[in-house]
Every structure is written in structure tokens, then in C-alpha cells.
Amino acid sequence: MFNNKGFTVFELLIGFVFLSMISYFLMTTIFNVREQQHLTIIKGELTNLQVNLTKDINTDLTNYIVRGITNCPDQQNCIIINYSNLGSKMLEVNIDENIITYGDNEYHLVEESYITNFSIGQESYPITNVERKNSILKMIIAIEHIDIPGDYGININYLYNNNEETFAD
Amino acid sequence: MKRSSSQGFILTETLVVSVILMVVFLFVFSQFLLIFTQYREFESYNKVPHVYNARNMAIFLKEDNYDNIISSLKNNYYFDFTSCPNPIEFTSYCEGLINEMDIKTALLTPYDLQAVISDNPSNFSHRLKQYLKYLQKNKDNPGEYRVILEFNDGTFSSYTIGCEYAYPTKQQYRYRRGYATFNGVTDYIMLPNDLGYRENISVFAWFRHSGNPKGDYHIIFGGQELELSIHSTGYLRTGLFTNARFVSNHGGGLNDGNWHYIGYIFDGTTKKSYIDGKFVGDQSVTGALTYSFANRTIGRYGSSTNYYLNGDLKEIKVYNRALNPVEIINNMNGYNITQEGLLRYYKLSEGKGTTLNDCSGNNHHLTNVTGFSWATEDVFSEWIDGEVPTSMYPVIETRTLYYYEGEWYTELELKFITEDWSEDITTGLIGHWKLDGDANDSSGNNRHCTINGSPFVTTGKIGQSFEFSNSTNKIDCGHISANIDLTKALTISFWAYIFNFPSVRSGVLQTSYGSEFAINISSSGGLQWYQGEHGGQAQPYESISSSKQVFEVGEWVHVVLVRDIKSKTRKIYKNGILDIKLSYTLNVVPATSSYPLLLGYSYVGTMSGKLDDVRIYNRTLSDSEIQYLYLLEN
């Protein structure tokens, strides 16, 4: 500025454009933060479900000996895990209702998240030492959210000795 | 800066202010970026499913060639077992686990990661190095080693191994119980016409095939109105009667001579059959169930004299409703037995007499029953939280379940001495000082000791004992380790009665703390066991301590210490029960002592209490032998 007569139209325009850009940037940022906050809350709920369900099942697998796993009769996506010193617990995955039930505990999925996979597989590796673990049971329940990338389900690997524990069916 | 006029800013001033503002903005932005990056990075650490995977890998390593794997850490700062190299033995399983868990890098490291971080291995990714620094900075559960995993999904997890104490959690007991056995020709038990069910029913029992019965069908329940039978070829037959007979055959393998849990449920429309908790087949049934009929029997097909049962039966249950699969399995396991709708429950565990008690709570006991024979077997109960109910059964032994370093295992079997139980507690006995008023050796090896000072002779646990109260009073057994090797497998057993815990650790018996052993009482009543390579009272040495109080004030306690060279472990037993099992953490190899064996004395303080029946073996006594010794002397 080289005089004290005021701003020229050009200066005012520049200032207006500059302020508009800053306003736009700030507004976008605020909206993004709000959206991120919303997603963070959902992510927290998804993680909570993942942690609780994983711990729930793993605690039993850690503390008790699995005597067998069988399919529930007349019911899909449902297994009965038979623990030798705990009793039996049913693991039921209701894909339509978005509910996972393990024993007495029911886990409801967060809105707009879905169970995309439920599978159980096992693999054994032959070894002469019959007293040690030689097999792995893999239990997967995949849970995904439409807006948040990543799998928030469970992926449990249970190591066992197939000379002591056999999982038919 | 000086303005050249009052009319505005010159270009230089504007530029300087702009630069300053840009620097401030850049700094703030970089800080935000750093926080955001760190947040994203920390998010990938120790996700719960992967922590369990790290624990699984730790379990695998501990079951594999663990000692040699740990030894390999001596020459390297870490052991990279991503490709399951030597000394891992079960490589196919290891590769399977690495693959199934989608592991990119698998490491076993010492707990302290400083050496690994300083080594800065070139094959580690930048993010893995960051994770190591994170672990080193954020101390988690202390331990000896860590399993550290990097996964292909970009996440990391770790699990600490070691320094986890064993503690008992649950108990199991073995008891002698009865069961009913049927001869397959004439034996059977009559039941009332009406058991109380109407529209639905569940009926289950444990069965064991002995041989082919008359008529080739083992009749558990008969006749046709409620049939539960097994063909001699091994399949299950279940039947009901409405306005017609409904009978179906399912499964197989029931003639193998093992116990099987068999039965069926009927929900008004479908009859479902189960073997060992598994559904094996069903049949649709129409019409109203016939629930009352004459000649309802166990072991015979109604009034027919052509079909019997040749085998064993126990745990017969009848319900007035259809059980669900979980209830069936729980009932099979004897855990949380379903009470709802239970009409009759004949355990057949009495083992003698002519009364079959109904344990359903309905008191439908069957009296004057003679159509079968009793037999007995020893069975284990389920694991229970409380005390073993010794009053219920003749308990033969108990087991306690322990949790140790992430693993469950049974650590002891505490038997009650029976006529047919004896253990060898003389082999390897190199000295046995009963301390019945003298210090003579009763082992037959004539390792008699000398009484120094004037310790009181007083009432002992067995006979008499010596009371110690100052360093002058002690029993000197001379330099016995000069003639016999006590540096390898070793068992020391003694009874101790403490008047009060010492203010500083005090000795019970010792050669020297830098050699085979020096056994002390801690100020909290715990036990410390020193051993060392020096041969005298000097370094190098190491000690282990009991995880909890061993000695009791005013009470006799049986203490046994075991050193197992093969497994490099030392164990402490209190009253026959294992307290703790530890490895040789420092790998100290005990040296022969240049000092004499002294009882009631140590290099620090003197015990204030009584000592009785000291035994030393140059071998490890088994759990069973230790329990036998305890019970024998108790």
C-alpha cells in the first residue's frame, strides 16, 4: 500500500478470494473432523466387539480342554464347542440379524457392518511324538463396515494335539 | 526492521512476516502429521487377535526344541524363526503356523531389546525396528524372553515368556464308583409302568458292550413302547409306540467294548438319536405317545425272554421333555446336569446292595433289585473349584490343575495310601537322619553325624526331634560330599517346625551356598535354595525362592526339594504338593562343597524351631514318591 486513500478494487478482490479460500478450507476441515469423529466412534465400537468376542472365546480355549466341535443339528452357521471341564458352548452366527452368540453372551453388530464370512478349518501335521500339539484349528468370523476399511471380526488359531482332541464334522 | 514511512509495509517487512508465519504453520503442520502418523502406527500394534497368535507361537516354541532355541540366543541377539530353521524340530507344523497366521517375520528375543535395537539388523523393516523401540520404551509384563511377530497385514504383536508363577486353580478327584453289569441271558430290572412322561421324552445312559447278548440286541430299555437297544454289530436302535411301532437304526461302533453315551429325544413329532453327544439320525413319529405300559424293563425286551443285555450300564436318565444338544453334551460330561424335567436318574454308582437310588430329587428309588451284578471302576470327576468331597466317595487320589507360563497342566496326584500302593523310597537314599535323640544315619550307609552344642531333644513329627535356637547348636555330618556326588540329581526331604520367622533369612541345613545347597527360611516364611559353582561360600551362585509361604509357625511342615539335571529344573514341595518349578536361570552347575553338611545351621542366621527326619537322595524322587513319603510319615 502506497497511499492512505483506501483499498483498490483489485486489492479487495484479492482479499475476498483469499478469505473465501481460508473459509472453505476451514469448513471442509471442520466437516472432515466431524465425520472422522463419527467414524472413530464406530471404529471403537467395532474394536470393542472384536476384543470382547475374541477374548470370550480365547479365554475358554486357553483355560479348558476342547473335547470336540460339532455342527448344531438343523442349524446353519452354528457349532457346539464341547469343553471337557466347562461343558458345552454354542457359537451361533446369525448373518441375517447381524448377531453373534457365544454361550450366554450375545454380540450385536454396529449399524452398517456385516458378517462377510464364517468358516472353521483344521490342519494336522504328522509327528511321532504323540504328546505334543501338532494341529491348528482356524476359526474365522469376518466383520466389515461399509465406510471403514479392515476386518473387525475374529481370527482365532487354536493349537491342539489331534491325538487327544479330534473335531469330527 | 524499520518502516520507511507511516503509509504501509515495505516489501521486505511483508516477506519476513510471511516467512515467519509459514515456518510457524509448517511446524504446527509437521507436529500434527507426526501425531497422526504415530497414532496410525500405534493402531497397528498388539491387536488382540494377533496377541493370541504371539501366545500360540510361544506355546509352539516351548513344546519344540526350546532349550536349544534359547541357547541359540546366547550367540545372537535374536532368533529369527520366520523360515523355521534349525534348531526348530517340528518344521512342518512351524511352517503351517507361520502360514496360517499370515506372519511376515517371527522373532524370539531376550526381554530386554536394547541389544537387538543397537545391533540394528539390516533385514528388519523400518517399522519392525520402530516396534522394537516401542516395546523397549513401554515396558509390558516382565519376563525372560519375547516372541515378536510382524504380520503381512502390517500389524505387530508380542508375547512375554517366563516369570509366570504356577498357581493351583481347580481340583479333580478319582474315586471308586459302581456300575451295573448284565449277563446277557437272564438279568433284567423291572420298572414301573408309568415313569411320568406324557408327550415328550429324553432317555439316555452310558453303555459298554461285553459280548453278544441273547437275541443279538442289547436291551437298555424295553419293550417296544420305549426302546433303547444296541445290535451286536454295533448300531443304535431307538423306538416308540403310538398307534403303531416306530423304530429306527442309527450310527455304529457301539460294540467296541468302550463306554458310550447313548440315547434319544422325542419332541412330539420327531425322534432324534444320539451317540456320545452327536446326533446320528432321526425318525418322524405320528400319533399320541404310549406312556404307560406293563413289563417296562432295563436289560430285557419287555416280557420277552429272547432279548437281554450283555454289558454294563450307568447314569440312566429319563426326562419329560426333549433335551437340546448342549444339554445332552453337558449331561454326557457330567457337568451342569440338566435338572429341568428330570424324572428319574439312576446313577447305578452304589456298587453294592439291592437299592438303586433315584438322584433326580423325586425319590423314585428302586428297592430289592437283584436282576444284575455290581462292578466297580476308578473314574475321575470333573474339575471342580471347591474342596474335594471326600465324604461322598472313597476318594483314591486328587489332582490339582495348574496354570504355568500360559499352559494348563496337572502337576500332582495326591493319593491316599492304600494297601496296594507303595513306592520305592529307599533307592538312592544316601543319608537318613531320624534325629530321635541322636544323629545317627538310618540309611545303612553309616553317615553318622556329631551333635555340636546342646540342642534340645524334644517331641518330633516322628518320634523325637532336635530343637535349634543358636549357631552353637547344630549337627555336623562332616564332609559327606567328598565321597558321594551331590551336584547332580538330588532330593532333600525334612520336617520343620518353626517357632517364629526370622528377621533375616536363617538356615535349615546346608553344605555351602556356593556348592550343592544351602536351604534357608526367609523372613516371610518362604524357602530359599542356594547353589553355586564356587564350592564354598562365594560367588558364583544362584538361588530360587518359593512363590509363597512354605514354613508355618507352630506347625510341622514336610518340605522336599528336588533338583533335576536333565530338565534343568528345581522344585519345592510343601506337604507333598508342588509349590513351584523353576529352571536354572543362570545355568549354574553346582560344585562339590569343601564344607561339611550341617543341620540346623546356616551361614546367615540359625533357625528358631525343630527339625526332624532329614533324608538326602542322590536321585530325583517322583511326584508320586514324594506324596507317598509325606503320607507315610504323616
Short description:
Chain A is an alpha+beta fold and 169 residues long.
Give descriptors for this structure.
heterodimer, A: 169 residues, alpha+beta, three-stranded antiparallel β-sheet, 1 helix, 8 strands, elongated, B: alpha+beta, ten-stranded antiparallel β-sheet, 8 helices
What is this structure's SSE topology?
The complex is a heterodimer of chains A (169) and B (634).
Chain A lengths: L8 H55 L2 E6 L6 E6 L3 E8 L4 E4 L2 E4 L4 E12 L10 E11 L8 E7 L9
Antiparallel strand pairs in A: 1-2, 2-3, 3-4, 4-5, 6-7, 7-8
Chain B lengths: L10 H33 L4 H16 L2 H10 L3 E2 L10 H10 L2 E8 L3 H6 L6 H12 L7 E7 L4 E6 L5 E17 L5 E2 L10 E9 L7 E6 L3 E6 L4 E6 L3 E6 L9 E7 L3 E6 L2 E7 L12 E2 L11 E10 L5 H9 L8 E5 L26 E8 L14 E10 L2 E9 L13 E5 L16 E3 L3 E4 L4 E5 L5 E3 L13 E9 L7 E5 L7 E4 L5 E6 L8 E5 L10 E9 L4 E6 L2 E7 L14 E2 L5 E2 L2 E9 L5 H11 L1
Would you write up a description of this structure?
The complex is a heterodimer of chains A (169) and B (634). Chain A is an alpha+beta fold and 169 residues long. Chain A has one domain (9-167). Chain A has one helix and eight strands, in the order αββββββββ. Chain A has one helix spanning 9-63; strands at 66-71, 78-83, 87-94, 99-102, 105-108, 113-124, 135-145, 154-160. In chain A, the strands form two sheets. Chain A has a five-stranded antiparallel β-sheet with strand order 1-2-3-4-5, with helices on one face. In chain A, strands 6-7-8 form a three-stranded antiparallel β-sheet. Chain B is an alpha+beta fold. Chain B is flat, with a radius of gyration of 36 Å. Helix content of chain B is 17%, strand content 35%. The longest helix of chain B has 33 residues, at 11-43. Mean pLDDT of chain B is 84; it is low at 163-168 and 403-420. In chain B, strands 5, 7, 12, 13, 14, 16, 17, 18, 19 and 20 form a ten-stranded antiparallel β-sheet that branches. In chain B, strands 21, 23, 24, 26, 31, 32, 33 and 36 form an eight-stranded antiparallel β-sheet that branches. Chain B contains eight helices and 36 strands. The A-B interface holds A 1-4, 50-51, 54-55, 58, 62-63, 65, 67-68, 70, 72-73, 80, 82, 84-90, 123, 125-127, 132-134, 136, 138, 154-157, 159, 168-169 and B 7-9, 48-49, 52-53, 56, 59-60, 63, 90, 92-93, 96-97, 100-101, 170, 272, 277-279, 325-326, 329-330, 333, 335-336, 382-383, 403, 406, 408.
